[in-house]
Amino acid sequence: MSACVPTRAADSTRPKRNHPPHNRPPVPPRRFRIAGADLSASIAVFLIALPLSLGIALATGAPLQSGLVAAAVGGLVAGRLGGSPLQVSGPAAGLTVVTAELIHRYGWRTTCAITVLAGIAQLGLGCLRVARTALAVSPAIVHGMLAGIGVTIAVAQVHVVLGGTPQSSVLENFRALPAQLARVHPGALSMSLLTLALLFAWPRIPGRVGHVLRTVPAALVAVAGATATASFAGLVLPKVDLPSWSSHALAGLPDGPVLGIAAAVLTTTLVCSVQSLLGAVAVDKLVSGRPDLQARVGRSRLDRELLGQGAANAVSGALGGLPVAGVAVRSSANVQAGAVSRNSTMLHGVFVVIAALLMVPVLELIPLASLAALVMAVGIQMVSLHHIRTVTRHREVLVYAVTTLGVVALGVLEGVALGVAVAVVVAMHRLARTRITHEERGGVHHIHVCGQLTFLAVPRLSRTLHLVPRGASVVVELDGSFMDHAAYESLHDWQQAHFAQGGTVELTGRTGGRIAEPSDSSHCRCRPWTPWRNHHCEPSTNPQSVSPGGRSGESGESGESGETDGPNGSHAPGDSGGSGAPGETVGSSARSRTGDHRGRADHQLARGISAFQRNTAPLVRDELARLAREGQRPSQLFLTCADSRLVTSMITSSGPGDLFVVRNVGNLVPKPGKESGDDSVAAAIEYAVDVLHVRSITVCGHSGCGAMQALLNSEPGGAQTPLKRWLRHGVPSLERMAAKEQPWAKLAGRAPADAVEQLCLTNVVQQLEHLRAHDSVTRALREGTLELHGMYFHVGEAEAYLLVDRDGDELFDHVGAAEDLRRPA
Description:
Number of strands: 13
Number of helices: 29
Distance between the termini: 54 Å
Oligomer: single chain
Largest sheet: 7 strands, mixed
Strand content: 5-15%
Strand order of the largest sheet: 8-7-9-11-12-13-10
Helix content: 40-55%
Structural class: alpha/beta
Radius of gyration: 36 Å
């Protein structure tokens, strides 16, 4: 009966009472809190942003206040609305060339209007959710664009460093450089050299003192040192001039040809968007190195980031600021300084506003030559040797060089368009050009295919393959990353025919390693040394039988017989998963299934050994031969449960010779002693510590442990089976969990799911105590040559936890991609 049926009839004579509805308890107002890490990170970013913002404004020829306006708006608007919480936006060096050209051609007020229009365009692109499309641009084009901008910045600022004035284009700056070298201003050059010396030497101060000093940004130290030196020496140099904010120029109506304004808006939108989105992706990579921060911040939302950048550009342009984009230097400094939320980015914007209003007398002491040297260094660093090596390794140096030269000689938009055109031509050339060679060495025919194997190369491939005599041994080396269906069919058909004629064919990749042949689909294609996924490569030859309950008798991946799994992967009794034949007794059905299961298991074992001999043995034979000569030298003793779902080499990324493994039911370590000890485990511990000299011992428990479930459900008395006698070594874990004076072991981020999981955690802690009681372990711990670690592996989540001590609590914390066993339990 449903629980909602009333238990008594309604009484019409009973007076009705109208109760007022229950109001929700008032929610207390949320208090705005700023973490200490965000505050310290915001100060570090502010100290970097202040001189760079002034330097970039100087390099573009814009009013110097515009750099401060863009820095403040980037921190407050983009920081609040953007989709990358830890990315810091502001005036970027990548926009210097574009902005300088716009100011030279249209004037400052029109440039501000172009910035506003570019921001509106970014808002539209963000609403269309096309942010990830910008990431489709070849990295060689992006790096080439930034390198070209860096060259343009550096060449222009050389004139200011030498005490002169830069020209309007790169080529003119190159032509004017000899004349500028003939009339060098000694004061400007000396302050520039001092700035560069401090900028590059400050991060390289060694020792503990250097570690403390490096907390102050090098850019701030360089500019402050040059400013102090120029002031004390009384040098007469051009310095920062910040007019009154009352005379600050705001955006005006666009004044110029429509096509020119449209091209300018497109260029600004393109550069701002690509630089900001690539910066957000780079910040995600930095955050991934801090698992605690990654769980709190999450990945960047690129469409929201594009909306935030568009809003910041619209506001910055309207207030008379430079274009805004994500800045790699400030963003990396923000993450490395320990920021944990977007509050650090916004606070840095607040500090910039305070500096712009209250620190004008101090800022006007900065020599322009010092700012020019700082920006010139940034421009030089934009030509990254790492990027050049990367594009060279990927054979895209031509695209990189053409884009760089195009940006330097023609401009940003023209250079990027030229780079895109060259990238398309190179891609088509690689796709269409395939070189096929044939030679005979030692009676073996070698066919080398260099390039992508497409339908365009099929005639030449077929012609070359048919030059091979019948019955010959052939090695086909495919030195490419793509093969289309036409080429595959041609190679497959020839291979089948060559096999039928008594020949042999071996397909290899560019490294010479054997690859899977496409000819025999019945062979196992599970690649060696790749993530395993419960593969059953042999196709089922029996028709599926469906039980009355609707479950299939053959389950494919979940098992061969369709039986459900019990604890620790064992088959639950009484669940056949299929119906027997008509007239067949249950006993005969069970016997037939048992014999069939055994036959298939034997076949699966043989097939697995065959796959090892065929695929994996050639890869590990040299390493195993070395281990056979030198003996085993494992670094860890790994003591874990015998559960079949726990693959020690997989969850520890270890290989032959790395781990000395002891497995038993329940990952138990019996206490030493005649009455309760177990010689097999104690002998393994003694051998690992005293003979193999392992450096650490790890006790690893896991979720859903059948031994812990049996411990919880065990009742006193009854027959003492071998399993019950063994599980008595886990009774102390049960008593530890029941004791009220001892705190329970905890999992980071959540409570244990049930009593079984709590006992699994407690058992790891208890077995570590048993481990410390062994003489060899006690001695090694006292000498400081051994560490003990507790580990918990959640099978269903494929998540590993390490035991750490936090304020006296036994906590199993997450293990991230960059973590290791740093702290013993």
